[in-house]
Amino acid sequence: MPTIHCAACIAKIEKALAATPSIHSARVNLTLKRVSIEAVPDMTAADAKAVVEGAGYEAHELDSTALSATQADRAGRELLMRLAVAGFAAMNVMLLSIAVWSGAEGPTRDLFHWISAAIVLPAVAFSAQPFFRNAWSALRAGQLNMDVPISLAIALALGTSLWETTLSGEHAYFDAAIALTFFLLAGRYLDHRTRAVARSAAQELTALEVPRAWRVTADGEEQVPVAELRVGDLIHIRPGGRMPVDGEITDGRSELDRSLLTGETLPVLAEPGQAVSAGEVNLTGPLTIRASAVGRDTSLHRMADLVAIAESGRSRYTSLADKAAKLYAPGVHILSALAFVGWYLYAQDLRVALNIAAAVLIITCPCALGLAVPAVTTAASGRLFKQGLLIKDATALERLAQVDTVVFDKTGTLTAGTPELTNLDHLDTRAVQIALALAEGSQHPLSRAVAEAARAAGIAPADVTGCREVPGHGTEGLWNGQRVRFGRSAWAGGGQSEETAAWLSVGDAPAIAFTFTDRLRDGAAEAVAAFQTAGKRVILMSGDAPHPVESLANRLGIDTWMAEARPEDKAARIDALTAEGAHVLMVGDGLNDTVALASAHVSISPASALDAARVASDIVLLGHALTPLPEAAQTAHKATRRIRENFTIATWYNIIAVPLAIAGLCSPLIAALAMSASSITVSLNALRLR
């Protein structure tokens, strides 16, 4: 549905579909410009297409091969080209109009009017097509939208101007018509640019699927497309490979990186009998798994479906501009019609009545209304971009201003997602040297943390020989004829530790614990404190184990926290908060946060986040520190205030100008100046945000 662009469009389409007996339910996704329909089995896509077209909107059956970012880019280029033509024509016509306004009369005035007509008619016919098309679609379906008064004003202005020029009249509205087209196209283009970057997170999730896999057969291994895998197939997963399907390990030992799916900080042991999910990464050893779910039944696909549903729900937000437009369109038509009828009855002159009706439409035409939101959004986006925040959605600032609850993910969001050795100063130097020698032979996160800390302290590795990594357990070797091990507690002979720990055993001596904590992200403590000072409730939700989650919550002063949360648990918690009336800001970075990011009232993810998480969010944090987040909320409050001020300016402009137009006191010069003045005032007010 390429022509939908606001919440009113969503409501009309869903209402039309809901009124069809064979359709059970319908949900429109504004970002994707797509509708999902549940219907009786014998209903075809062509039937649904006819219903949508009957509501006044263009519709096509979904063709996934035709979906690409270039389509959005093409629409943007088309708008920009029409805007350029309208601007060029407006500049030339204004030069001619100045001569008329300065006192040109008789044949000279008529010549300038005819030249203006020659410039404006083809320019408007090309540039105003987006308004004409949308208005015609709405009228065919017996509906009204904002493009109807716009198109009517342009058409009536051109018609009365041609009539006046033919009769050698004193006034013509060519300049007002082309200026109107230019200003409205500027607002439409600004709105398009804010939407163009909002791709679907569900599409990004499906992009994580592995295209090919190694299937184990009686003759060995064969590489096949994942689409050919079936439940029960044996699949070989090499170290570093991603799981193509859900299944159970039948052979091999390794460790799995589940951080993207569950938020668990550390790799988990993988051994026969253990269940694995599509999207998990095999780290250290080869594995053979038996497929238990393939294709659309995998956990990755189910998550993509949840995200798509959440995105559809969030697109139901009605922006301030849409609320204003709902009342505006019928009011403009009623005023213009009353002006025409009243003047015709009073003067018995069709020419006078049409001129005044055209003046009312031009004066009231929503230039200022069309620029009120895009101008503020663009100014605020520029300010936040300088602070390291990229605004992706047109209504993100409005929604951010309403936030009263902030939900943070832990790993990779409040923390850097990398472990940090905490007890280096309390360890024997010889033990650190041995651990360093073993750690340098492993890519395990804890081994890398030991190597980084020891090298930074200027410690050299001990002379350990025969180092080898035991998948799922750790690394071992020989030092001075003694076996040394560095890894899991049960394997290295260690004890219990409340903190994250790796254990070093040297011969028969008691094992030594190396303890770790997750490094805080820069500005995390400051951001949490600033949100709490502003009166917002802060919640920590993580897929990690209870102890590290509780430890971080206490460290940052967060009272409410949730551990071992699966993706659907996070989304359910946010839905519950929303049902209680809360407006939730979700800040997260992982695959396990994607559904929650899409479900929240507004969402933010760091630039270091997974692609799917960045796409699901409304705002992207470009820098590493979290300190800009509270300031972004303050800027959102200011932006919303500016939007309301712009609506006030547009309202007062109409209150003052409309009576003058109805009284017949507005010449084309006054109409053009008033319209331009209101648009410029709105734009200047928006620039105050910078």
Relevant terms:
single chain; 690 residues; Alpha-Beta Plaits; Calcium-transporting ATPase, cytoplasmic transduction domain A; 7-stranded mixed sheet; 6-stranded antiparallel sheet; 25 helices
Report on this model:
The chain has 690 residues and is an alpha+beta fold. The protein has 5 domains: 7-67, Alpha-Beta Plaits (2-Layer Sandwich); 70-196 and 317-378 and 638-687, no CATH class; 208-304, Distorted Sandwich (Calcium-transporting ATPase, cytoplasmic transduction domain A), CATH 2.70.150; 379-416 and 520-637, 3-Layer(aba) Sandwich (Rossmann fold), CATH 3.40.50.1000; 418-519, 3-Layer(aba) Sandwich (Calcium-transporting ATPase, cytoplasmic domain N), CATH 3.40.1110. 52% of the residues lie in helices and 18% in strands. Strands 12-24-23-22-13-20-21 form a 7-stranded mixed beta sheet, sandwiched between helices. It has a 6-stranded antiparallel beta sheet with strand order 4-3-5-11-6-9, with no helix packed on it. A 6-stranded antiparallel beta sheet has the order 14-19-18-17-16-15. Helix 6 (147-166) runs antiparallel to helix 7 (174-196) and helix 24 (628-662) packs antiparallel against helix 25. It is elongated, with a radius of gyration of 32 Å. The two termini are 35 Å apart.
Q: What is the residue-mean pLDDT, rounded to a whole number?
A: 81
Low-confidence stretches: 63-72, 197-202, 313-317
Helix proportion of residues, in percent?
40-55%
- What's the β-strand tally? 24
Number of domains: 5
How many DSSP helices?
Answer: 25
Radius of gyration of CA atoms, rounded to a whole number = 32 Å
Shape: elongated
